[in-house]
Amino acid sequence: MKKPVDIAQRLEALLSAARRVRRTEGLGAVLKRAPWYFFNRLFTYQRWYIHEYELSNARLWNESDFSPMVAGYLFRVVSSNEEADALESQGLEFRSCSPYSRQKLDRGGIAFCNFLNNGLVNIAWACTTQKSMEYVKSPPLNINFANGQAAIEGVWTHPGYRGLRFNQYNLYMKHKYLLGKGYTKMYSWIEKGNGPSRRVSLKCGARECAEFSIIRILWWEFWRGNSCFLELYRKCKKKRPHL
Ligand SMILES: CC(C)(COP(=O)(O)OP(=O)(O)OC[C@H]1O[C@@H](n2cnc3c(N)ncnc32)[C@H](O)[C@@H]1OP(=O)(O)O)[C@@H](O)C(=O)NCCC(=O)NCCS
User: What does the alpha-carbon distance between residue 153 and residue 102 come to, in Å, rounded to a whole number?
Assistant: First the structure.
């Protein structure tokens, strides 16, 4: 009984991602990316960094040093489906830009969002439980959720609003929020070559604590990493519905 639901969820997430690209970058971008997306289902080779953040660093930070370069934005933290529904009822765009938002929020995921004129211009998720990682495309890391650690994923800024420091502000607010909830560390994984993401992360004090690469051929995955990666690595057969 479970399989068809998973397939339906995957299809829904894929369509939602395609709709988001069409809305923000046009049909041409969808058509250009589609063959690459399907090729990647057959074969992938990627190289990544793992970034580690000490949340206590944020105690010394000033919000004004991290604020977006435009006025009128609205920042919101969404930590339950009730809060997400309340946002939508106020006319703020959330679900259509956030694949698996229901499942993630049910499992301990928290969304950090920036809105401009009611449209979502930037979002990033924090996973605070192992269960919330079930709907996340992630390396098999042994994050100690029970002891104040969290993971960042699903980071995205609307292409029309990139370079305005929305992601920087989002990362700052994640530090502040999670620190206030008693968390001590966060981890993220950033593909080598993703200059903007790496830059924001390092600017916000991240330590590049490990490197790894992955080769995926159909459903076989092979991970290779430096010794720090191996410390964090965990052979978990976790379910990743959208891979
Ligand atoms: C990565 C991403 C979230 C950044 O969002 P953003 O809101 O534009 O980020 P910010 O404006 O806060 O900061 C971007 C920084 O990168 C810099 N930058 C831009 N292009 C760069 C490049 N090619 N190389 C290095 N730095 C670059 C900008 O100058 C800026 O730094 P500055 O504030 O010191 O000038 C956005 O590009 C995105 O959504 N990309 C697609 C999805 C993605 O890659 N997600 C991250 C997965 S780990």
Answer: 16
In CATH, the number for domain 44-232 is 3.40.630.30
Q: Is this prediction's pTM over 0.85? A: yes
- Give the distance (Å) from ligand 1 centre to CA of residue 178: 22
pLDDT in tens, 3-61: 445 788 888 889 989 999 999 999 999 999 999 999 999 999 999 999 999 999 999 99
Structure tokens, 205: 């004090």
State the Cα torsion 230-201-126-137 to the nearest 10°: -50
- Ligand 1: residue of 199, 201, 202 to mutate (most ligand atoms within 8 A of CB) is 199
User: Measured between alpha carbons, how far is residue 89 from residues 13, 38, 44, 63, 219 in Å?
Assistant: 22, 36, 40, 29, 40
In contact, 194 and 164? CB cutoff 8 Å: no
DSSP state of 192: T
DSSP 134: G
